[in-house]
Each structure stands twice: as C-alpha cells, then as structure tokens.
Amino acid sequence: MPDLDLTITRCISTQIIACLVGKLPLTDFEAWVQQTPELSSLLSPGDYAKLMLIDFQQIATPSLLDKLLRGYIDWAQYEKEQLAELLMAIIWKDNVPAALAELHEHFTHGLTFLDVLGNEYGLAIKAAQSPKAKPGADLDTIMKTIYPKARLEAKRLLACLVAGKIEFTGTHTQEGYPLIH
Asked: At what angle do helices 26-34 and 4-20 cross, to 10 degrees?
C-alpha cells in the first residue's frame, strides 16, 4: 500500500502543475483549492493565506499563482515523467507521430540527447505532415520505415532515464525550457 502522505502530495502537485502549465482552467483550480483542506498543511501558513485571498477573476491570477506555488513543485520529476510518457508512447505504439513531433520540439529547445528521436525521426514526421511535403512522403510509409529503429531508441533512452543517466535539474532557461545535467 502506498504511503498516504506521498499520495496526497502527488495528487496536490498534479493539480498545481496542471494549473501552472495551463491545462486546468482557473475556475476549476479555484474550486479545487476551496475543496482541498490538505493545502493548509502543505503550504506555508503565509502562502496558504495568500492563496485563499487570490481573486481568481483577475488577469494577473496566473502570474500570482506561478509566483506563489512554483517552489512547491519538483519540476525535475515532472520533466522526467513527461519525457518518460513520450518515450513509452513510442514503445507502446500510442500516437507515435505526435510523440516524435513533440520530441523534435524538445530537441530544438536544447535536449540534444534526443538527436535521433527528435531531430531525425521527429523532423521526418513533421516534414511529412507539412503542406509542402514531397509527393510519396506520406506518414504511413515513413512510419513503416522508422518505427522499428525509433522504438529501439526510445527503449534505450527510457533505460537511461530510469538509470539516472539523464537528469533534469528542475530549472529552466530564460525561455522556459528545461535544463539537464
């Protein structure tokens, strides 16, 4: 049975992250805050008081929430989990083109260890999906060609991630992209 405190913290951090990255509407986050008394023991008394006083209807609310809650999140763990999900999507053949295209974005934002998956395969997928794609460069043909190698590379990178050979720092560039060791 999992540690109850870890489960509560995990649930809370998931909601906070969803809000901070824009995947949870502020109205839903506000309702969740009001229904989550555990926040009072997770946040410092001052931060909890500030959270309870936020007017969620103001334009500055996302910025206020970011300043207030960002420090409570293990961003290194979050980035690791996001990368693991993309790699597992490739391994399990779950919307591989989208995963490869997203890995291309990560590569272009400095995650150079994604050279093969992101730069080669992800770029090939994006080129095939482009309105300017060459005739005969259809997605199915490209996927049949690259998928076996992409799956092997995803397995290799996932093993490196799990073994701690790829470590996110939890910090970001000025542009907001994650940094690794």
From this structure: 150
pLDDT at 7: 47
pLDDT in tens, 53-100: 999 999 999 999 999 999 999 999 999 999 999 999 999 999 999 999
Q: How far apart are CA 24 and CA 22, in angstroms?
A: 6
Which H or E run includes 170?
Answer: strand 168-172
Q: Are 133 and 127 in contact (CB under 8 A)?
A: yes
What does the longest C-alpha to C-alpha distance in the chain come to?
62
* Helices 61-69, 45-53: inter-axial angle, 10-degree rounding: 170
| 15: nearest Cα among 27, 24, 5, 7 | 24
* CB-CB contact of 108 with 175 (8 Å): no
Q: Are 33 and 61 in contact (CB under 8 A)?
A: no
DSSP annotation of 85 reads: H
CA separation for the pair 17, 34 (Å, rounded): 17
Residues in the chain: 181
